[in-house]
Each structure stands twice: as structure tokens, then as C-alpha cells.
Design a protein that fits this description.
8 helices; 247 residues; 5 strands; Nucleotidyltransferase, domain 5; alpha/beta; 2 domains; five-stranded mixed beta sheet
Length: 247
């Protein structure tokens, strides 16, 4: 638990390949508990009185069976050197991988656009849908134009309904806890590098409770399955064509 301070009994059991009841008993006997922290999140007063968008949220009716169908975006804050710094991320809701991110000292539309653009560069593709809340950053004209240029359909949660963007909320619930206290860094460059390392840890090593494995491992397994399926389909097509031609 020193390496994974936020692991509860479920993730510990998965990591060790042990029964959950055994892990619960051992953790109780040794007074081991995951580190949990809930924090306050700053908001924009102007967002409170802004009317809801007319964008229909069809995410609840979508069940992606592969990556890069639905991405979701959000941002969180870090207090460092007497001011807020903001981390915007983009998550693939199928693989749960953080596919793009950006750090800035403002939470404006450009912060969100840079995170989305980073995801486009890293994945070299575009999603069919992008889900977010109704913060002013996500409903600005420039951001909508970015979606339109990439043929991506925008989806929004209802106002004051953070659970409708649960994939990002779940990520941020432990992100800052596992990142640690930003005050230990000497300058912003060290903090940004720590954010990068934390995202890499989440993607590559941290067990996701819904996947029972880290997101990158899950993604690679799915890619291998798809490759096998595509190869089998290809040979089946060739065999069927050959049989028809021989008749």
C-alpha cells in the first residue's frame, strides 16, 4: 500500500490474486486503510445563472465496444505557490485511459482545447462523441468549432449533475490524493512533470476497479482480440470466396 496508497481491499485483492474476505481480515488486523480525501472545487459564479444548453445527452444510451468512440473531458485544480493551477484531462470511457491532458494557470476554453488537441496528437484519431459538463469552457464557440472541424459530436451532462460525467469524476477522486502535496515541489516544471508521471501511473500500473486491470493493459488485450477476430474474418471471407468460385 506504500506504492498504491489509495488501494482499498478490492484492488489489493486483485493485485495479490487473493480472496477479498482474506484481504479485509488482514487489513483490519494490521489497521491498514486507503488514504481518502475529499476536497472543495472552485466554481465560476457566472455558470450558476447560465441557462442549460440544448444539447441532448445521449451518453446513457451509448455502450461503446471499442476505443475512440466516446471521450469525456473535465478539469481539476492544484494550489501551488499562492495560486491555482488547472489540470484538464480527456478520458476514453471504454478503455478508461487518459488519452490527453494539459496544465495551465487558467481554466478558460484554451485549457480545454489544448487538452483535446493533445489527445488528438497522441491517439492520431478523433472520437465520435465527446462528453462533458456544462461549464462555460465546454460550451464556448471556439470549442464547438474544434469539435465540428473534427466531426465530433458534443454531449453535455445536465447542470449540477456531476455524476453524469462519472468517468472523469472517478479519475479525479483519487488523482490529487495519489499525486501528493504540490508544496513539495520547487517550481511549476516539477509539478507538471509529477502530473505527467501520475497520469502514466494511472494508465499503465494502477488497477481500475471496473476493468480489474490498468487501462493500458485492458486496451492492449482488446486490440489483440480485435486483431485475431479481423484475421479470422479475413480468412473466412477468402475461404468462402474460393468455395463459391470452385462450384
Amino acid at each position: 500500500m506504500e506504492e498504491h496508497p489509495a488501494y482499498g481491499h478490492r484492488r489489493v485483492a486483485l493485485a495479490l490474486g487473493k480472496n477479498k474476505k482474506l484481504i479485509i481480515r488482514v487489513m483490519r488486523q494490521n489497521h491498514l486503510k486507503p488514504k481518502i480525501r475529499r476536497g472543495w472545487r472552485p466554481t465560476k459564479p457566472e455558470d450558476n445563472n447560465r441557462p442549460e444548453t440544448r444539447v441532448e445527452n445521449i451518453l446513457k444510451a451509448i455502450c461503446p465496444i471499442c476505443q475512440n468512440v466516446v471521450w469525456a473531458g473535465d478539469f481539476t485544480y492544484l494550489w501551488f505557490r499562492d495560486r491555482f493551477w488547472y489540470v484538464a484531462t480527456v478520458i476514453d470511457i471504454y478503455t478508461r485511459e487518459i488519452v490527453g491532458w494539459h496544465v495551465a494557470n487558467h481554466h478558460t476554453t484554451s485549457l480545454i482545447m489544448d487538452a483535446f488537441s493533445n489527445a488528438l496528437r497522441l491517439t492520431k484519431t478523433t472520437p465520435k462523441y465527446f462528453h462533458s459538463d456544462q461549464g462555460s469552457e465546454y460550451v464556448a464557440g471556439a470549442y464547438e468549432s474544434l469539435f465540428a472541424n473534427n466531426q465530433t459530436i458534443s454531449l453535455h451532462s445536465r447542470k449540477s449533475s456531476s455524476w453524469q460525467n462519472g468517468h472523469q469524476e472517478s479519475f479525479y477522486s483519487q488523482f490529487k490524493l495519489e499525486l501528493g502535496n504540490p508544496a513539495r515541489f520547487n517550481h511549476i516544471g516539477e509539478l507538471i512533470e509529477a502530473v505527467h508521471q501520475q497520469i502514466a501511473y494511472y494508465n499503465q500500473r494502477r488497477i481500475h476497479s471496473a476493468l480489474k486491470m490498468p487501462p493500458m493493459i485492458f486496451k492492449n488485450i482488446q486490440l489483440q482480440k480485435n486483431a485475431v477476430h479481423n484475421t479470422a474474418f479475413k480468412y473466412q471471407f477468402i475461404y468462402s470466396s474460393t468455395m463459391r468460385n470452385s462450384v
